[in-house]
Amino acid sequence: MSYQCFDLSIAEGIAHIVMNRPEVRNNMNPAFWEELPKLIDEIDANAEARVIVISSTGPHFCGGLDVSMFGSDAVKDAAPDAYAERQRGLKFLDTVKRMQGSISALETCRLPVLVAIQGGCIGGGVDLATAADMRYATADAFLTIYETKIGMTADVGTFPRIVKLIPEGIVREMAYTGRRMPAAEALNIGLVNRVFDDHQAMLDGVMDIAREIAANAPLAVHGCKRAITYARDHNTQDGLDWIGMWNASMLHPEEIHEAMQARAEKRDAEFAALPKRRA
To answer: Entry's Gene3D superfamilies (predicted)?
Structure first.
């Protein structure tokens, strides 16, 4: 399947999704919101890879929401009938829910998702980045909750996630001011995992990390992703109960034996792949 906003390549167990519209700062137009979850679902459902890397092109990672959408039926009902204004709020909520679902696809898919950020990660770009498992950046990168600067409150996913990644006071400062957070600061507070000198060095480094993930047992990595997300959203005892139940049904001694045997024999392990999802 071809996409307007993305290029996809799969090699060495890594699905590399590249945003390909640098001339418009890789903004999030209507096609973006439709294509992203379809692309993630296609990779996940067909078990085509073991890890996903999302990167971008041009001077900026993502310029956020395509502002032309504010004048479209995607966010506004132009119908002149008497009931349109009464319906407006619920229609807007429906649009937001669909957009939230597009971003949440990164979190709910079975594979780890790594995001490589160069230049600006603006507005909706932060929604996308915070939904990923890990974030990496170039030295010139910055993140900004820019929605405040254009008179709106971010609503697609930034706040529920970023407040669990960095201190609340810093989130509030970013949100209230809309200021740019440079990569060095993002690294210092743990919002990004690592900072690289330039775009190519970042892509090389992130692909090395992705290959290391892809070399591990896909079933175990999937279990880690589920357990970490569950623990983030629940208390400690709930997390302990959940992982106990998960391993009671999902722990595979054969995978452990293969990992140990492959290490002893200095060869690549042959693990079970994630099963394809039912249509």
So the answer is: 2-enoyl-CoA Hydratase, Chain A, domain 1, Lyase 2-enoyl-coa Hydratase, Chain A, domain 2
